[in-house]
Design brief:
Length: about 375
């Protein structure tokens, strides 16, 4: 992939851009094998590759410059703004949106926030696209002082960009490098962006997490569904479930499934999907996953975990070791913390592992790992 910003030294987010893509995959696979070297792996499946450009469904743009000439992108280490509208990681469909957002900022009188002076209102623009063609746009503002101006100008933007199905304003008043605040203000009647992976309906709300590489994410969910379909299980937990992608793929009308996620917005999405699918034995709740699990006196046959980068941790590992569900399915965006957790699960064998290259041109990747109790079958 060629990137003029990288060549000019203005953006180095893709640290591995100069490394040939096959070598990127080899290096990631080698690291994963090193991390799991202490545990024999029953089956290594080949890495799932990604498109090398145009794969991201989300843009997080710092807004700099002036209200008449806004710059959308990031701020370099030297303090200079860098326009990322032509970043090759974004799909072509983003260009038209960025082109209209620049004059809209002036129309709405949204002065870009100046970090040094602690002045201005518009901090970030967050754009997400569904594979179904719709988009979600979030304005991250310092305060509500320009909110009415934003509302008044919005019909023009919606006329120019009818693909914007969900629009909101997030209020982030803190003078720190924090992407968003707690307060979200809806600017459109619909606040859930419809998505669909493998014929499973999913929804994205403004403050819910969603994978940034939809094609690889769809492969990840489909693989989990295939692995679970071959296990003799009738019940499962989906811990750290997000919008329910794993659980909704794995669930059948007969399976008893409970999904747990601390983010209430994500749970609202998961519940909407389950209702649309007619899954009567599936439930989702907004709770802390570790606290939920460790307060239960029994576990289902399968526990699926998809934790944040810190992993599931010693407490949950100890609980799972004691309760001993037949199978654990571990999805991780941080193979180092996953390897630490697996080392704690001494009574489990690693049956199957597969790498999913969710983040090309970087050292990051996703992993799916199936564990079974020693002496069992998987």
């Amino acid at each position: 992939m060629h990137c003029a910003l990288y060549d000019a030294g203005r953006c180095r987010s893709c640290q591995w851009l100069e490394k040939p893509y096959p070598q990127q995959l080899n290096d990631k696979q080698s690291l994963l094998e090193q991390l799991l070297a202490e545990k024999p792996v029953g089956e290594w499946l080949p890495p799932v590759q990604s498109a090398q450009q145009g794969f991201r469904n989300k843009a997080k743009m710092v807004v700099s410059g002036s209200v008449e000439r806004p710059i959308l992108g990031m701020v370099a280490r030297d303090g200079e703004p860098v326009d990322l509208c032509a970043c090759p990681l974004y799909p072509d469909s983003f260009s038209a949106v960025f082109a209209q957002l620049k004059p809209f900022i002036a129309r709405a009188g949204l002065t870009p926030y100046n970090v040094a002076r602690k002045r201005g209102e518009l901090k970030f623009l967050l754009l997400t696209e569904s594979t179904q063609g719709g988009m979600m746009l979030r304005f991250v503002l310092r305060s509500t002082s320009k909110l009415q101006q934003l509302r008044d100008a919005l019909p023009w933007l919606q006329q120019q960009l009818p693909q914007l199905k969900v629009i909101s304003a997030n209020i982030q008043p803190v003078h720190m490098a924090i992407l968003e605040g707690d307060e979200e203000i809806a600017l459109t009647p619909d606040q859930a962006l419809a998505e669909r992976f493998n014929q499973v309906p999913l929804y994205i709300r403004p403050q819910s997490f969603f994978q940034t590489n939809p094609l690889v994410a769809a492969d990840l969910y489909a693989t989990a569904r295939d692995w679970v379909a071959h296990l003799p299980v009738s019940g499962m937990w989906d811990l750290f479930c997000g919008v329910g992608g794993f659980g909704l793929h794995c669930a059948t009308p007969e399976m008893q499934l409970t999904g747990i996620e601390i983010n209430a917005e994500a749970i609202t999405c998961a519940q909407q999907s389950a209702q649309q699918l007619g899954l009567e034995k599936v439930s989702f709740a907004a709770l802390d996953s570790t606290q939920f699990a460790t307060s239960r006196e029994a576990v289902p046959q399968l526990v699926l975990v998809n934790p944040p980068r810190r992993g599931i941790g010693a407490e949950l590992c100890a609980y799972l070791s004691e309760m001993a569900p037949d199978y654990l399915l571990y999805s991780s965006c941080n193979p180092s913390s996953m390897a630490q957790d697996i080392a704690r699960l001494a009574d489990y064998d690693v049956s199957r592992v597969q790498l999913f290259d969710m983040f090309p041109h970087t050292a990051h990747f996703e992993v799916l790992c199936l564990l079974g109790k020693k002496g069992g079958t998987a």
